[in-house]
Batch of 2 targets.
Target 1
Amino acid sequence: MSNPLLEIKNLKTSFRIGEEYYAAVDDVSLNVNENEVLAIVGESGSGKSALAFSVMGLHNRAKIEGEINFKGRNIANIPTKEMNKFRGNELSMIFQDPLTALNPLMEVGRQIDEVLILHNKNMPKSKRKKYIIELLERVEIPRPQHVYNQFPHELSGGMRQRVIIAIAIANQPELLIADEPTTALDVTIQAQILDLIRELKDDLGSGVILITHDLGVVAEMADRVAVMYAGEIVEVADVDTLFSDPQHPYTRSLLSSIPLLDDVQDKLHVIHGIVPSLKNLPRTGCRFSSRIPWMDEDVHEENPELSEVSPGHFVRCTCYKHFYFPDENKEEQDHDTTKS
Amino acid sequence: MTLLKVEDLKVHFPIRGGILNRKIDAIRAVDGVNFEIEPGETYGLVGESGSGKTTTGKAVMGLNNITNGEIYFGDELLNKGNKVNIRKDIQMIFQDPYSSLNPRKRVIDIIAEPLRNYENLSKDEEKKRVKDLLEKVGLTAESMLKYPHEFSGGQRQRIGVARAIALEPKLIIMDEPVSALDVSVQAQVLNFMQDLQKELNLTYLFISHDLSVVKHMCDRIGIMYNGRYVEEGTTKEIFNDPQHIYTKRLVAAIPDIDPKNRKENTNFREQVKEEYTNSYYDYFDEDGLAYQLKPITDTHRVALPERG
Ligand SMILES: Nc1ncnc2c1ncn2[C@@H]1O[C@H](COP(=O)(O)OP(=O)(O)OP(=O)(O)O)[C@@H](O)[C@H]1O
Ligand SMILES: Nc1ncnc2c1ncn2[C@@H]1O[C@H](COP(=O)(O)OP(=O)(O)OP(=O)(O)O)[C@@H](O)[C@H]1O
Ligand SMILES: [Mg+2]
Ligand SMILES: [Mg+2]
């Protein structure tokens, strides 16, 4: 089998708070293959964007440890000048936050042009402009000729997001990291943007890391899904398995919080407790244990690791074997697990 | 009595050009919008990206120049020299959690800002209020002394929510309030918003692209397309009996959380898209604008052309 397009090994990304460094991404290993969409879901603050920024080499103040192998080459901590050869070209990212990613003082067209010219030095200006207008059309921006000359603050939230998408796909990347690419878009435009990402994958065989809170988008787009909690991966599975047979208590809790379209729920399911801050994260034992306090302490492993529960399906900590929701009948649950 | 009444609202932005940079045309961001919201109600505003939802919300907040129309809050006309005490009653949670928080201010100062403008609290009282507000949105008290860049996207959005509810306003305009949150925190914020609404008889104008969230939260919904309404109705009418082709397309595009339905969904969407393309001119005029709304029931209005 060929090497994965991206191979992340024991990545640790730490931010400095006061005198100390605290890991927001804590020993994460992941692969992304060519022609594959890997979705990353997880609690807000669990380190998804920090992971993405690490791959892109965009964390200037964070400490990065471990390996990030892109097409066989370790790009963790390589000099910016080296990194710039990849960035925006073979490797590109759709940012979660369009406003800070865009320059407020520069017209939209010029911003796209800057990325384009970086890797297409010989393309004449008129040709570049034509291509940029085409790109704006492909991301469904109305009046592209006019928007070409507009400033970011003159665009709606979703239009800004589409400009970011246009920049990210301008050079047809081999690996695209899409951090919440469609949250600001209505569902019809979202569907078209997702088609565009799918095309990139199908036509060029690109790999995609899709970070999103929208589990519907995950269900429709992903080949595999990794679930993050508190800086760690707690579950990895192919998309069908993740939705039909989720194991980790966090994954199961997450799935039960979704508001359902065909069901009227009075109250939505909420995970008990609050996310500890980076500084106060438990660094030993099962990090999710404080969120399921009704579970017996000895259901958790001392040093929980990812273990393969079925081919390609990995789960961290043994607590999943015993997990039940407080309103479920415990006897029934224990019975079920011993049976299987 | 109706809490918010928007009548024939138009907000146009000039397009400038030529050497003299004169106004050569205008973007009709909002182009003749009418709706009313009753006290205690949650009113959803959904639709095409760029259709004028945020602009409508900002107009109500008094943050846009209004080209035409009237906005009433209770019986006060808002867009003619607005009074400060009404402004306290309307708060907005902004769509972009990054740019709406001042990066140079600490969280305590961000959340306490409205309190400082309207209430006279001692330092200790203020700290306690901010701590309570942070807890309500699921953040720890130690967040108080941090700066916005030290938070993740979802955490920042919660800071915005905490600030908006600080003064316990009557009307809260929520522009994509939970789109940056994971579904569990989202559930927490939505449950909390609903409890708070009951407790304080709050009214919400809820702008969102997430139709399952809209369905869960809203009593009535307005659908916008290109600066105008295409349909308005109760949540049930919009989801079970959509009439306008744009509404139908929107409902068909909602992502399905069962990966096994991928193929089926793709086919169904293709079908609706085709219907959309074929019947476009039955629903929009030659400029691509929606027609006037016509009532089809007491609560359900649809933009259809005059017959005959
Ligand atoms: N520059 C920074 N300095 C200090 N802490 C940071 C910094 N950036 C992020 N963090 C912290 O690191 C953790 C991970 O943040 P990250 O942005 O990766 O979360 P996320 O999973 O992308 O969340 P969301 O879904 O809300 O976007 C959070 O606890 C956040 O507060
Ligand atoms: N300050 C401005 N100057 C010029 N045009 C503007 C300005 N603000 C908004 N617009 C334009 O008005 C239209 C409506 O924008 P608005 O932000 O209200 O859309 P929206 O419905 O909130 O979209 P989204 O769902 O993407 O947030 C867009 O075409 C936008 O480009
Ligand atoms: Mg993020
Ligand atoms: Mg908007």
Target 2
Amino acid sequence: MSKNKKINIVISGVGGQGLITLGNILARAAFLEGKDIKMSELHGLSQRGGSVAVQIRFGKKIYSPLISVQEADLVIAMERNEALKSCLFGDKAKTIFLINDNSIFSPAFGDKKLDSFEVIKNKILPFAKKIYSINATDITTEKFDMPVLAGIYMLGCAISKGFIPLKPENVLKAIEDIVPRGIEDNKKAFNLAKQSLI
Amino acid sequence: MNWENIFLKKQSGKEILLGNNAIIRGALESGVQFVSAYPGTPSSEIGDNFSYLSKHFKTDFYFEYSINEKVAMEAAIGASFSNLKCLVAMKHFGLNVASDALLPFVYTGVKGPTVISVSDDPSCHSSGQSEQNTRAFAELAHIPILEPSDSQECKDFVKLGFEISEKFKIPVLIRTTTRVAHQSGIVKLDKFKKSKNKAKFVKNYNQFVTMPPRVLAMHDELLEKIQRIKEYAEKSEINTIENSAKGKIGIITSSVSYLYVMEVLDKLNLKLPVFKIGIFYPLASDKLKQFIKNLDKVLIVEELEPYLERETTIAAKDINPKLKIYGKEILPETRELRPEQVTAAIAWLLKKQYKLKNIEVPKTLKRFPSLCAGCPYWLVFNGIKEAVKQSNLKQEDVVFGGGIGCYMLASFVPHNLQDYLFCMGSSIGIAHGIKKANPKQKLISLVGDSSFFHASMPALANAVHNQSNPLIIIMNNSITAMTGQQPYPGITETGRKEKGKLIKIEEVVKALGVENLRVIDPNNYKEFVKTVKDYLNKNELAVIIARSPCLRIKK
Ligand SMILES: Cc1ncc(C[n+]2csc(CCOP(=O)(O)OP(=O)(O)O)c2C)c(N)n1
């Protein structure tokens, strides 16, 4: 098999949660570490509250912008129901799921009931080496009154737990380069995640 | 992101660029002078970011959002004939609209070099209508088509496109797909070239006037030109062979499919010869023949229709009739390719153990896109339902004509107000036909305001003149919303610093001869419902302009 170790990350969620910014930050941080990167994003209809998934890959040399099925190292799900859709990329042997315990309603659901988080986790289990959940939206709402920082908080968790092999200082630098407004709050949310209980 | 630095200042080093941004950078490094675009995913960032640059910094190019792609193309044709270096950007459907101007433009050729960037969307991530493959325009229009696979190539191919355009005096098309346009990767930046082209239209009847019989001579000249470009393509570095002379099984590929191929070869630690085609048209068929000459088997990895496969089949007849050619037989012809499909195809070809796993992803509720909370369209859709009810009609009794824009979300729950959906402008055009077929049929046609200027005015004039009687509701949210809030002629804002002249939709509608016309803010809900009801029962052509701005308009 290939000597060229590649890191594959899927960030899934709902349009408007800032997933592309998160992807850009990761890509930038990997770039600052001299890695080759590829990122793939979708826009358009997905902006209007549809499902969104951003894929980021980095390593010595990366060709494909898309991750193959069962080849994600990490799935960051910003919305717990969306985590289910990323199972395509999950593999029992290696994939870590980091899930924001947050549920976003869509008018498309009608009166159909969503699964409870316990049921969701059980469904993901066959695709995950390990599942971690954090209530990032609650935490960033409480601490900063800014639910949009949930993504940065999740990123902070993933980096501080070593799920992504990038140096925190490079991610902080990438936040400065990428985030258009509120850099200080973003950095605070990122750093706060070190104390998260997962 | 430091825009000024990345797009206008840095002349060396590397940056991460989105494919669309790399197209911009390529045009700027080439010294582009005139840029026109109409938005459409996945191409929109090209126009949007040219607009941003021209609004915020001192730049050397003119930029406009034109009212549709044909007009954008025509604007560029005029600027090219006046000696400027031009870029036109659009999504694939836009090229259909622009094609009437494109075909003669390829005949006349350019004066100022011109590149047309067109983005396809296999798998229809952000497109209804059809899963169009713009490669088909190669044979129809005889336009050279370059297919980049990543951001670096987006930049390089745009520059090369300008060079080819300059050398052969022909417009050049850059075809991306969603996975190229919306792929980010590392791009090496180079120096900016300053264009010294002075703008002036110098009369040249022989070149610019496509009257017969001259047009037939132009056709001959074009074919001869394409032959010369083919010779150029035979030697071009962007038609490359990797791992040449490494075995009897080869791969031919282009665009993003090339990246999947290389990823798989890397993963499986294989070194198969790969012919990567950068110039899709005219195809370097001699190089292709050389490539397949000594092979036993060849796999063609391309998305949608099997153009390269057909060309390979033709080439093999002469040079290697025993060659086994695999393509659509083992890879799908609809939808974009996925890397694991390419893995399975290559493994199968090599008789390796690899089974495409059939993974059952756990089910969850589908999340449709939906109107933003507080969007004025909620009031319009609800108001329509209310008016239908108050008219003692059922929703089944009324045909709801859909159009392209955020208002196509009328299709989904909880609205369910869409009985046909085609292309920009066709909401009214088709409504007219339905009403002519049966004037008693109740019908409400929805039209966006950008869609109105784009292609709906001729349809409205036609309905008025030929006297059909649909009820038309123009969704006047004062912006091109779905594609990311681009300006349009109904406001003074434009794509650049200078203000434009505002064109009032109601004045256009009146001028087109519509007598039943009301402009209403749907927040004035009762009044809105009453007007819809009145007009629905009237049996005369009527237009309601539902005016309330999109919530996302950037202040
Ligand atoms: C020929 C063509 N060009 C561009 C597009 C992309 N497109 C899809 S929706 C849309 C915006 C339409 O705006 P408007 O009519 O104002 O409707 P709104 O989104 O504001 O409701 C555009 C440009 C397309 N589908 N077809």
